[in-house]
Amino acid sequence: MRPANGLLKMELTMKDYAKGFHDMIESLRADHEISVVSSYIFPGASDADIVDAVEILGCKLDETLEAFYRQCNGLQLRWIRRDSEDFNDGEFGTYTNAPVSMQDIIEDSHRLDGCINLFPLNIVISKSTGIKVAPNSLYVDTYTILGESFSPHEFCNNSYVMDGFDADRGMVLFPIRSKNLQLCIMSAISYSQFQNSKKVRPINYLDLLLTNKGEIWSRVQALKLNKGMLIETIDELDF
Asked: How do residues 170-188 score in pLDDT, each as one tens digit?
């Protein structure tokens, strides 16, 4: 028998993300073919953190996102395969279980390494992630999102970087206030892709991270993220 919608919604939003990511990280650390360089699961967000986010964003958080942030208010993970031509024990052989700078997390997407950089909610809403969403009026006149059009500057002003996982791509939260929609995660940060991009449900994105263990290239492929320079890395940020 199919569960009632209310029960199904509760089952989806009550998923234990903190445990899921912890177990995923431990499985990576137990894999002798992989070196986990660093990982950290931030403590859960407080009620005040959620209230601040809703006030600044102008719409309520998607239930899955709220559940995630209440369980773990951010996540950092960086791993590399030991047989990678880029691996060396001096740079990647020591494990750090603490927050590190953004520059120690993000990586080039051509590698088959793993990277997750889900910023704490207060960092996201203050736009102090160390990554900015830069307007590009040269290639794109308007961004169309769920039937609404935004200039490049409007899009950038209303975008909040949630996950910066390589030097050219990331995921942003984009609230469409006029339709009173819940928060969306937009799956594209590149010029050529974004205009036709569709929203990605938060639960699907978080499940993807748990399934592929943050592997950069398979995530890029799954989300069909063409390489672009709409996000630009700025000053290094230490938490």
From this structure: 788 888 776 666 677 776 5
- The span from the CA of 53 to the CA of 71, in Å, is 16
Cβ pair 230, 191 in contact under 8 A: yes
Contacts of 151 (CB under 8 A, 6+ apart): 135, 137, 141, 142, 143
| Residue 10 neighbours by CB distance under 10 Å | 12
The sign of the torsion formed by the CA atoms of 147, 151, 155, 158 equals negative
Residue positions counted in the chain: 239
User: Which residues contact residue 40 at a Cβ distance below 8 angstroms, ignoring those fewer than 6 apart?
Assistant: 75, 76, 97, 98, 99, 100
Asked whether the CA dihedral 187, 193, 195, 196 is positive or negative, the reply is negative
Q: Is residue 65 within 8 Å of 13, Cβ to Cβ?
A: no
Predicted TM-score (pTM) of this structure = 0.84
Convert the pLDDT of each residue in 97-142 to its tens digit. Answer: 988 887 777 665 556 689 999 999 999 999 988 877 777 656 667 7
